[in-house]
Specification:
Strand content: under 5%
Number of domains: 1
Radius of gyration: 19 Å
Number of strands: 0
Shape: elongated
Number of helices: 7
Length: 157
């Protein structure tokens, strides 16, 4: 059992785990947190396209293949625009562009800094993730993205 002196125990609300994170876990967390924060920073720099999609073209990327080949939106159409709106604080425009993208960006806003700080610290900060909760959140974002896509296809938008 790890013993913390009273001063250290009061400063750290989470008990220390018997084993800290391994180097490769820390590296993955730092890489993941850095990636998410980089994507958020990129979205903040881009100007959201007023059409609700196509903002990714500012990065030199091609148009959506499904739009070009089949003339319909793909489930991720509007995600970059959604992230860009959200980074400007325009939540309603973000949801209009792609509601799944809004949820994904909110998850990135919460998990990016947390992963980076936890990876650098070598142990989970704040809370230790429960795999079932992470899976449920991820599946929920995917479900909202698919429902949003189906709704847009039905309405022809």
């Amino acid at each position: 059992m790890n013993y913390l002196p009273p001063a250290e125990a009061a400063a750290d609300p989470l008990p220390r785990a018997p084993s800290d994170l391994r180097w490769y876990q820390r590296a993955a967390m730092v890489a993941g947190g850095t990636l998410l924060l980089s994507l958020l920073a990129t979205a903040a720099i881009l100007k959201p396209n007023p059409d609700g999609k196509g903002t990714h073209r500012q990065l030199g990327l091609p148009p959506c293949s499904l739009v070009v080949l089949a003339g319909i939106r793909c489930p991720s159409c509007g995600m970059t625009t959604s992230w860009s709106h959200l980074m400007r604080g325009n939540v309603l425009a973000s949801v209009r562009a792609n509601s799944g993208g809004t949820l994904f960006a909110l998850a990135a806003l919460a998990s990016g800094p947390w992963l980076l700080v936890s990876g650098l610290a070598g142990r989970w900060r704040g809370w230790r993730p429960d795999e079932r909760v992470v899976l449920l959140l991820g599946l929920s974002i995917i479900a909202v993205t698919i429902l949003d896509w189906c709704f847009r296809l039905k309405l022809g938008i």
